[in-house]
Amino acid sequence: MNWAAIAAIYRFEMARFFRTLAQSFLSPVLSTSLYFIVFGTAIGSRIQEIEGVSYGAFIVPGLIMLSVVMLSISSASFGIYFPKFLGTIYELLSAPVNFLEIVTGYVGAAATKALFVGLVILGTATFFVDIRIEHPFAMAAFLILSCLSFSLLGFIVGIWASNFEQMSLIPQLVVTPLIFLGGTFYSVSMLPPLWQTITLFNPVVYLISGFRWSFYGLADVPIGWSLLAIAAFTGICLGVIWWIFKTGWRIRS
Amino acid sequence: MTAILSIKDLRKSYADGFEALKGVSLDIREGEILALLGPNGAGKTTLISTVCGITTPTSGSVTVGGHDTQTEYRAARSMIGLVPQEIVLEPFEKVLNTVRFSRGLFGYRPDNARIEQILRKLSLWDKRKNAIKELSGGMKRRVLIAKALAHEPKILFLDEPTAGVDVELRKDMWDIVAELKQSGVTIILTTHYIEEAEAIADRVGVINRGELLLVQDKDKLMAQMGQKQIEVTLTEPISEIPASLAQHGLTLNGNGLTLVYTYDTNAERTGITKLLNDVAQAGLVLRDVQTRQSSLEEIFVTLVSGDAA
């Protein structure tokens, strides 16, 4: 393993994050605060508790997931797309590194950023609502796995995209609807029976359900399924990336 | 000298059927400067990209220091530094960081002293904390060189290092290349500027339409391909070439004042003595005699246009 290369990519990507620290840090704090003001206080006070958890507290895991997933995808896709766009990818392709090292560097950095922002949101949320974490290890595991797996997805998006428009296509047209319809702001049990069944085809449901379970012990689907879903998702992303580097798809002519 | 880089029957075809490289074979000797000359689209950049691992070859092999670039890519690639043709750099990154990145990417531990040495050599040390977007075009090109040198390559590819660079900077670049050669780095550069090859190369390769037309020592090439001309300036203009001089194939220039005689430097007999005798016999009085050797440029144009025919 070329550890120095992994460290170099990781440091380079993190430097980008720290250059824009105010933006990286303030924007999630601000948007989370707005969500709490609107959904937690203004509207949330009129919504009854969900299985003994106040609405404001109920949406915290979903809100964290929302930001973490979006940020993982955007930073990992940008991290690899930008060198492609600028042409600086020549250096990566001519360096003595393999696909695992490149992915570890880029995805590791993107996941770190997302994890950082996830923790910032969690911290912000404690100012607005009472939060309890019943299963802290499971919570950490879900959070870290989500950061990693969606950073892998972001990496694929970045390799696939051939312009900036395509970069935002997957996050906005696919991931955002899946997250909003995945039980971020509601419990699946609130839906009519037909929609409850349809919802089960949304992979994000398993993610948010598992994550919420680690907070309040509440789950829409059994926790084992949630773990299985995220493991399968991570596996699929890894498989796709392995194939990309093996064939040189969209990178090596 | 031993070959540090060996290219064997390298071919590259694209999906649309375009053959960018049609079986290029080339040995590059350790410590030399090889200039690859060729018109736009000749395959120079494809050749470099394929050797460096950016493009996958269709067939053929490349070994660097005995390591195959496909099966032993780590060992092969770590010996090579590449300075691309386009200025491709992260605009917001600082000079120092981007050079450190390159060193790390090639598996080297950070070494501030080494980086400082490189940046000083390229007159970039004062700019190390500047973001790249703040630098001039020439400075950016130096940053590309610094990045390529950061991992201490044995072979350096310079893809058109002086394209769009002013005369002074071009001379600077030549000095840098000369210094690198001194330090034992093998250099392969592509160029449009024949004067560049003429000024700094040890050997010259001419590539056109994916084929390597020739590779030769620069001096030998110029001597072999070289045609020389004698210009005989007369004191009095003449309206036509005297019949007694017809056999020499002269041309009359400069308002009838200059006779131009072209000859091959390699020929057994150049015919100069007979020409000058005949000129004197014809009663012409000489003011001046000059000789002129064809430049590499003329050789190159001859080769490439011959290839197109």
Commentary on this structure:
The complex is a heterodimer of chains A (253) and B (309). Chain A is an all-alpha fold and 253 residues long. Chain A has one domain (3-247). Chain A is built from eleven helices and no strands. Chain A has helices at 3-19, 21-43, 55-58, 60-86, 89-94, 99-125, 136-160, 164-180, 193-199, 203-216, 223-247. In chain A, helix 2 (21-43) crosses helix 6 and helix 4 packs antiparallel against helix 8 (164-180). The longest helix of chain A has 27 residues, at 60-86. Chain A is globular. Chain B has a six-stranded mixed β-sheet, sandwiched between helices. In chain B, strands 2-1-4-5 form a four-stranded antiparallel β-sheet. Chain B has two domains: 3-223, P-loop containing nucleotide triphosphate hydrolases (Rossmann fold, 3-Layer(aba) Sandwich), CATH 3.40.50.300; 227-293, Alpha-L RNA-binding motif (Alpha-Beta Plaits), CATH 3.30.70. Chain B starts with a strand and ends with a helix. Helices cover 33% and strands 29% of the residues of chain B. The chains are: A mainly alpha (253), B alpha/beta (309). The A-B interface holds A 2, 4-5, 7-9, 11-12, 15-16, 19, 82-83, 86-88, 90-97, 248, 252-253 and B 14, 49, 52-56, 73-78, 80, 82, 84, 86, 88-93, 97, 100-109, 147.
